[in-house]
Amino acid sequence: QVQLVESGGGLVQAGGSLRLSCAASGRTFSIYYMAWFRQAPGKERESVAAITKGGLNTYYVDSVKGRFTISRDNVKNTVYLQMNILKPEDTAVYYCAASSKALYGHDYWGQGTQVTVSS
Predict the structure, then answer these.
(1) pLDDT truncated to tens, each residue of the chain (119 aa)?
(2) Contact criterion met (CB below 8 Å) for 13 and 85
(3) Do 24 and 4 meet the contact criterion of CB atoms below 8 Å apart?
(4) Pairing of β 113-118 and β 10-13
(5) Cβ distance 53 to 32 under 8 Å?
């Protein structure tokens, strides 16, 4: 079992930046692939970014490439999502997820953090 708690969401103007954090507790953090997902009102949850267990490889959905950066600190048991050049279409609830089996897997979810980008 692992518990995930996101933080760092908020209201920002278009073009601004936010940094989300997801703190994990429970089992050894480094055994998990970690990912960020988001869900906008009226839309399905979609994957945003993922990172391998050691943090060497990262993956992004096309819409955030060049603007978002996923990273992790396996000592602090935390995964981050640095979001730059934010757009109104990035408005959503952002969730982190953990899986020991697959990139973009989601055996465990956090509670989510709201990101709102105003135009």
Answers:
(1) 899 999 999 999 999 999 999 999 977 899 999 999 999 999 999 999 999 999 999 999 999 999 999 999 999 999 999 999 999 999 999 999 999 999 988 999 999 999 999 99
(2) no
(3) yes
(4) parallel
(5) yes
